[in-house]
Structures are given as structure tokens and as C-alpha cells.
Amino acid sequence: MSAVEAVILTIITASTPLLLAAVGELVTERSGVLNLGVEGMMIMGAVCGFVAAHVTGSAAVGILAGLIAGIAMSLIFAFLTQTLMTSQVATGLALTLLGLGLSGLIGESFTGQPGVKLAALTIPVLSGIPFLGPILFGQDILVYLSLALTAAVAYVLFRTRTGLIISAVGGNHHSAHALGYNVIGVRYACIAFGGACSGLAGAYLSLVYTPQWIENMSAGRGWVALALVVFATWIPKRVLIGAYLFGTVWIMGLYVQALGVAIPSQLLSSLPYLVTIAALIIISGNRTITKVNTPACIGQPFAPER
Amino acid sequence: MRNIIGSIVIGLAITIAGTAHAADKLKVGFIYVGPIGDHGWSYQHDQGRLALEKELGDKVETVFVEKVAEGPDAERAITRLARQKAGLIFTTSFGFMNPTLKVAKKFPKVKFEHATGFKRSKNVGTYNARFYEGRYINGKIAAKMSKSGVAGYIASFPIPEVVMGINAFILGAQTVNPDFKLKVVWVNSWFDPGKEADAAKVLIGQGADILTQHTDSTAAMQIADEKGVHAFGQASDMIKFGPKAQLTAIINNWAPYYIERAKAVLNGTWKSVGSWKGLTAGTVKMAAYTNMPAGVSKMAAETEAKISSGELHPFQGPIYKQDGSLAVPAGKTLGDGPLLGMNWYVKGVDGKLPK
User: Fold this and answer.
1) Could you tell me the pLDDT band of residue B20, with boundaries at 50, 70 and 90?
2) Best of A212, A249, A263 to mutate (most B CBs within 10 Å, chain B)
3) Would residue B355 count as lying in a domain?
């Protein structure tokens, strides 16, 4: 395996959890809900995924468990913010703290246990192609899922009625309500979707990235995903670019260091953030597109007037 | 009126009983930079704490705070422990240096011990372990076991402690293979399994077939096992994560030191010292030599014995810096002072040392 191939494979692994979480959060935010609890949902997905996989010996069960954990956490958030109408920002932050603490508690007896790794799907003939084979056809299912999800979300949001309803709810919830759409219901569904994706991202961390459970293993990736969504102006294609750009710059930074090039490592560590922010700002230069895609009601609680 | 007096009396009684009880046992506090579940640095400190409890359980009670970030938060955590009447506090990471000194000024009666630092005061001592001795042995093993002649080093922050480790590793390797190459990647974190795994993959992709680290998680060992290369465990035995990969591990054994210092406080003989022990005192231990041919493990054991007895010092001359200048002349050994302030690479390390 050549060095370039190894680097590309590593980039894919580094970018996938960011993409998964960001796509989910994109849908949530499109419906007008700002869920800052991505980090909490991600880490809960990681711990539940690991525990389930460890206990049953099956990575597939682990992924399912991570998914369910993410949904469960997000539903707590949904209940608090949509039904009880608490502040979305505060509740989201509380969710993050809850996730971080609870995951530590659940995972305590599982720390240091060797994990179950999700096997890569080696598509028979195609993955044998030199160089491109393992990159395009030898990934595990979550990588393909992340790309499929991004495409699916883009399609649904921009080309179907469902997507239109979601955007309407996020753009002007009072008008949407007047038209007869169930604003709270739509938001619940979008929050749950976001939770599912964050949970999957977390399960990816503990089942593929580093197949073990260590406290705080998400190490701030949830926050990166959150920022990606905003800087990408809620457009799935831009989120994809942002996530992969972040992953690429991060891995290239390590690569450059290992080559012995004399760039300070601290600068290289900050480059992924700087480059991604810069790139996304440039991409989002067109003001009209930005305005059209921003969910105007984001963060505002919905209290039906009638 | 009677109720008020009654409650004051009860309150006083409880307080007196409480302080009396506290006066019996010495409260020893521990501040960890990472989770005790890291199976590395903080885990080993906690093992030391547990050993302390086992040994002196009737005279000592311990309390710990984990995952304390280096910086302003550390000061708060240390202050809280001091307020909780801890008599002896161990702060277990380099970045706790200034917070420890600050809190120590406010609590002159409490004794503080700071790990891997170099600033002391009347009630702050420092302690460290001569990890570089273990690194030297690792280097020798690496040079023997490596087919590509390249090793990868996953480093955290460019502080003297870490640089010492890198230099000792390459010096050991150079005794076996003078052209041994070392690639260093700085992840700027003590603990981030994802980053460590990424760094490991990148290093392997560039031809390193031996990995070693100065970070605290087991991620790199796992990647090594997965990719079929060898690696060295850091701070604790990581064989469970790399059954085919681990050659040996440097194990930090803090228990004897913790017990000794707690006894000193109990006896009233505690003084601020800078303790720096290694293989000889058992503060540094090597895990069983595995996954290597008998000849290599014999060489490793012999080297370990020589360092333990003092016959061999990893930093004995001649040693050349990366720029070619002579750092240590033949026949001399690098003293503790220059070691503790080390900010240069030995000749043979790829790359420039970040400031």
C-alpha cells in the first residue's frame, strides 16, 4: 500500500464522523432547532455502540445501539425544548454535559477492553483494483452511508415536498402553522434524525476509528460538526466539502510533520480549523444563496398563537 | 430559643466530631490530567494511589479529581482539594506547575508534590521518573526489530521531558544501527485517541515499522496491532491492546514514592525535594519483553540491568546535536540540569524541534 493510498484512507476515516454528525445537525437546524448537544449525543452513541458490540460480539448490533442512543438523547432535548419550551441553547449545552458525564459512567467498566471493529465491506472484484480499489470499494458501510445520507438529505431538502415543509417550518413557523403543518411534529422528527446521525457518528468512533472505549474520546468533534453546518450555510454539498477539507488538512498536517518539514506543529494543529473556515466563507460568498438557505426561525421556541 | 441553642450545640458537636475524625487521618489528594480509564499515565498514578490506600489505609484517606485541564481550571481544582483539608496533594502533570505554586502560596500548611515539573518552593516538591532509561532500552530493541530502519514517534508537546524521551530513544537505537531514522509527529495533546490513531497510520504509511509514543491512550498500539507492526506501550502495560504488537512497555510505578512521601508527612519529616528516580529504584519498570526473538530480549534485559546498576547511562558521551555540535564529550555524562532543560534534538532525528 503506497503512502498516498494510506493517507487517503486515513482522510476518509477522519472525515466520516464529522460528516455524519454535521448532516444530521443540518436537518435539525433546517427545521429551526439549534441543537448544541451534538457532542453529547455523539459520545453517548460511542459508548452505547461500544458496550453493545462488546457484549454481543457483533459490530452491527453496536451500530444499532449507537443509533438508538443518539435518538434517545435527542428526544430528551426535543421534549424539553419543543414541549416544555426551554431555551434551546441552554438545553443543548446541558445535553452535551449530560452526554459526556453519562457516557463516562456507563463506560467505566468497559474502559480498556479491546473492542470489536466493524469490518470493511470488500466488494469482491472491484476492491482488487490497484490504488482506487480499496479507496472506493473497500470501505466499511458507515462511510458509504455517510455519503449516501448527504446525497439523500440534499435531494429531500431541495426536491421533495417533505423538504419544503421542513424548510417552511424553519423559515417561518407561524406561517407553516397557519398552513396547517404540524410544526412541533416536524421538529421532533428532525431532531430525532439529527440525534440518529450523531449517534452513528459516535458509534463510528468507537467501532471503526479507534475500536475501544475511552472517556471523552469524541474530543470535541461534535463542536466541529456544529460549526461546519453553520459555515456551510446549511447546504449539504458544502458540509461534505467542509468535512472532507477538515479531515484532509488535519491528516496532511500530520503527514508533513512525519516527513520532517519544519513547520511548527502548533500551526499545523490549528490549520484544519482555519482552512475550513476560510474555505467555507469563500464558498458562501453569494449573499442571496446564504439568505435563502438560512433557517430564519432557528433557536426560537414555537408557541402556537391559537 | 431552645431550638436555636439546641441546633447550635448539635452543629458544634458534629463539627468537632468531624474535625476530630479528620485529624486522625491524613487526607491525600490527587489531581489527574486525564481519566483514570486512559490505561496510561493517569491510570498508573491512580494505581499508586490505590497502593497507598492499601498500605496506609488506617492512617490515610485519599481523594482524587480526574480530567482536570491544565490551565486556570487546575487552580480551582487544586484549591478545592486544599480547602477540603487535604494535607498532601499530588498534581500529576507538567502543566499544573504554575497553578500548584499559586495555590501553595495560599495554603502554606499543605504540602504539594508536582510531577514532572522543575519549580519548587517551601511547600512544593517535585518528582519525576527517569523514563528516558526505558526509552533507551526501547530504542535498542527497535533498531534490532525494525526491518525498514525507520521508527515513528507520536509526541505530545515539545517540553524537555518529551524531547529527552525522543533523544534517549534514538541514542539507544544508534548503538545498534547508526543510520536508524526516527520520524516525529507532534499531536499537541496528551490524550486524544483519534489523533494518536491518525498519527500512527500516517507514520506507518511513511515506512515506520516500529511505533512509540509519549501520549496517553492505547490507540496507537491498537493501530500497530491491526497493521502488523510493532509498538511500545507507554506508562502502562498495553499488551491487551496489542497482543502481537507490543514489544515492551515503560511502566510508571508511583506506589513506592507515594507511600514514602505520605509517611514523611505523617512523621513530620516532609521537606521539599526534587525526586528523580528510575529503574534502580523501581519507579520505572519494563513490561515483559514479548514478540521478539530470545536474543533481542536477552540484550534488552542486559541493558536494563546495566542501567539499573549505574554502569550504563543513556546520555553518556560522545553525543552530537542535530546541528553537528558536540553536546556531551566522550567519557562524560549529561547532568540532570541540562537534561531537565533539554531543547535540542540528537543527530539522527528527522525534522526540526518546534519551539
Assistant:
1) very low
2) A212
3) no
B271 and B334, same domain (yes or no): no
- Indicate if B326 and B200 belong to the same structural domain: yes
Verify that B191 and B102 share a domain, yes or no. Answer: no
**Order of all β-strands in the sheet with B284-286:** B284-286, B246-252, B230-235, B210-213, B150-155, B181-186, B349-350
Cβ partners under 8 Å of residue B233, min gap 6 = B218, B221, B239, B242, B246, B248, B249, B250, B251, B287
Contact indicator for B116, B96 with CB cutoff of 8 Å: no
CATH number at residue A277: 1.10.3470
Residues B208 and B148 in one domain: yes
Quote the minimal CA–CA distance from B148 to chain A in Å.
14
Question: For the residues A82-95, what does the mean pLDDT come to?
Answer: 94
* Domain assignment present for A299: no
Give the three cell numbers for residue A257: 510533520
- Nearest CA of chain A to the CA of B345: how many Å? 13
How many whole angstroms separate alpha carbon B258 and alpha carbon B264? 10
Longest Cα separation, chain A: 66
Give Cα A165 to chain centroid, integer Å: 22
Nearest-Cα distance to chain A for B183, in Å, is 5
Give the separation between CA B30 and CA B47, rounded to whole angstroms: 12
pLDDT digits (tens, 9 = 90+) for A21-56: 999 999 999 999 999 999 999 999 999 999 999 999
- Report the alpha-carbon distance of residue B26 to residue B53 in Å, rounded: 11
Q: What is the CATH number of the domain that holds B59?
A: 3.40.50.2300
A301 inside domain? no
Show the cell assigned to B326: 558536540
- For A265, the enclosing helix (H) or strand (E) is helix A265-283
Q: B209-259, pLDDT tens digit by residue?
A: 999 999 888 889 989 998 999 999 888 788 888 888 999 999 889 999 999
Strands B210-213 and B181-186: unpaired
Whole-angstrom Cα distance, residue B207 to residue B152? 9
What residues make up the domain containing A93? 3-119+137-293
Q: Is residue B162 part of a domain?
A: yes
Using alpha carbons, select from A218, A173, A261, A177 the residue that is nearest to residue A44.
A218
Give the structural domain span for B232: 131-252+283-350
Please report, for residues A161, A171, A177, B59, B237, the alpha-carbon distance to residue A181 in angstroms, rounded to integers and kept in the order given.
Answer: 12, 13, 5, 68, 59
Split into its structural domains, chain A has a count of 1
CA distance B153 to A99: 33
Would you say residue A129 lies in a domain?
no
* Contact (CB<8Å) B202/A10: yes
Same domain? For B49 and B188 the reply is no
Indicate whether B106 and B39 sit together in one domain.
Answer: yes
Sorted by sequence, the CB contacts under 8 Å of residue B71 that are 6+ apart come out as: B95, B99
Residue to test with chain A: of B202, B206, B322, B352, most A Cβ within 10 A: B202
Q: Tens of pLDDT along A94-145?
A: 999 999 999 989 998 887 777 788 887 777 777 677 777 777 877 888 999 9
B185 touches chain A (CB under 8 A): yes
Instruction: Based on the fold, state whether residues B122 and B135 are members of the same structural domain.
Output: no
Residues B100 and B114 occupy one common structural domain: yes
Domain count, chain B: 2
Q: How many CA atoms lie within 13 A of B217 on its CB side?
A: 32
Distance CA(B178)–CA(B167), nearest Å, equals 14
